[in-house]
Amino acid sequence: MVQLEDVLRARGRIVDTVKTTPILKSRQLSEKVGAQVFIKSEHLQTTGSFKIRGATNRVIQAKEEGAKFVTAASSGNHGQAVAYIANQLEIPATIVVPTDASESKVSAIKQYNGSIEYCGTTSAERIPRAKELATELDGVFIPPYDHPDIIAGQGTVGLEILEQVEEVDTVIVPVGGGGLSSGVLTAIKEKKPSVRVIGVEPELGNDTQVSLEKGVVTPADGTDQTIADGLRTTQPGDLTFPILQKYLDDLVLVSEEEIRYAIRFVMERIKQIIEPSSATTVAVALYRDLGLQKDKVVCISSGGNVDLNKLSDLINVVGE
């Protein structure tokens, strides 16, 4: 299992590539929630999401191990991150993306000199293909979440939160495959175990909830239906799941309409464009009574790579 020491080492390894993203404050959001609410703005990160942290940590080590080619399977953000750092290190990269991948994310991958291959709509389809390509071309597959180097890299978000928000009480983190959430949990719970960490999934992408209820990693159907495309995993990782089981204080679900409203709220009141996956954490603060009153609460905004052509659809709340 990944330890705090792994996260600290990752931080030193990625410092020249990864930004320390700012903490945003919103008086209106705080008043609406009844707590001091902050946003950890990974949507302002290099390549537009937290994914650059884990990807950089893993690709740097892969190059040190002699890798001359890398592959990844991604709905967009992980692919962008791998393509970016591979390009920086002058290693060719092929990214296997779903057939419904955001045009803006695919375009960004190409801008970082990454090659594109389309395959299916879920991680269960594209991950095997990316592994196959790595084997065929004598390369290294860079997993989106289920690898110690990826988890440790993502955990640096947790280190920054503890340093940036004095006496933080609660951190809300989106849960997909579990790379970000397990990394953040490792950093925070091993450094300051009193901090409550709440995970959030879309109702249409609740594979971690199902797995936690059953006590074992369990695939969930229909996760490709949520607008939170960064959370469309079919199951948590074999490495990330035990960390979630050990440390996660609570896991809650949010609806598609709540996600849409949270995107619009952040645009209108905070003047930031965030992805649906990021908006899940804000939706929890807005819609769930989790005893946050008087707390210092950090909502992790995991990414901001939104296809502007689809933005109006994302913020169209039914009934308004």
From TrEMBL:
Its cofactor is pyridoxal 5'-phosphate; Mg(2+); Mn(2+); Ca(2+). InterPro entries: Ser/Thr_deHydtase_PyrdxlP-BS (IPR000634), TrpB-like_PALP (IPR001926), TrpB-like_PALP_sf (IPR036052). The keyword Magnesium applies. PROSITE patterns: DEHYDRATASE_SER_THR (PS00165). The keyword Magnesium applies. Keywords: Magnesium, Pyridoxal phosphate. It holds the Pfam family PALP. Residues 17-303 form the Tryptophan synthase beta chain-like PALP domain. This is Threonine/serine dehydratase. It comes from Piscibacillus salipiscarius.
